[in-house]
Amino acid sequence: MRVIVKLLFRRKNIMADSTNLISAVKKFYNSGDEYLIPVGIDKSKIPALSNYIEAQNTGILAVDVDNISDTAAYASNVNTIAFKAHTDDTHANVLSSGTIGAVGSLPVGSFDVANTSGLDESVLPQDQLSFQQDQLTPYTEGNINTYYYAQGMPIVRDGKTLSGDYIDMLLGRDFIIKHSNKKLTEIMVKNPKISYDNTGINLLKSGVESVFDQLYRNGGVGEKANGKPDYDVTALPREDMKDVDVSQRIYRGLSWKYHPADAIDDAYISGEIDL
Q1: Least CB-packed of 49, 55, 85, 136 within 10 Å?
Q2: Residue ranges covered by each domain of the chain
Q3: What is the number of H-type helices and E-type strands within the chain?
Q4: What is the pLDDT of residues 54-88, one digit of tens each?
């Protein structure tokens, strides 16, 4: 389970150069949480916040925007999700927290944000009668997520970050990074000493592999043609390490690559009547 983090800043506490904002967000990375939802922050500060998250290359910033054009200054950022919901006198634009609230407790790899339905009543879908399919185009082109009726059911589309990357794939990336670091720490704590040889190196490798195996069981890793998980963890031997690293007891030989599991977000039907 991932804990949702909301940061509430009163405007008088935010410096014009966003220094206070970024300083506070640094604490987010020490907490281990996945999602960051800024609340009550002037939208002029969001680009700096998004760019900071982008530079860390882990974690997801989820922002609610008033207009599709609000994301222009950070429109290519991989680690920022933008949401725009319908609003009225009793419903605010809270699609970010509504969406994350619906999926945040699910195992990473087991869900696709696109087509998520059943959000909290605080989230208002686009008007079922007035919001037509062609009005979805600007959202799709700008990679802005919204909540609208499809075949009479309210759903979130398209489950992407501003860069066009799928949210579930980035969550898988973060799962691997965070859990690999945790697993290696656990191995080092639980073992009195890890030898700098094939035995010790393979112990570290198996720890990282266990993370991929878990993500595979969750549904987040694709399969090879032989039906096995589509990932590879490489652990270079001691002789490939630099002498300075060996002398300082640092091992830099672990690396990985994998293919995320694919998903179906749309389906099309063709047919014919045989008279």
Answers
A1: 55
A2: 4-157, 168-258
A3: 7, 8
A4: 999 899 999 999 999 999 999 999 999 999 999 88
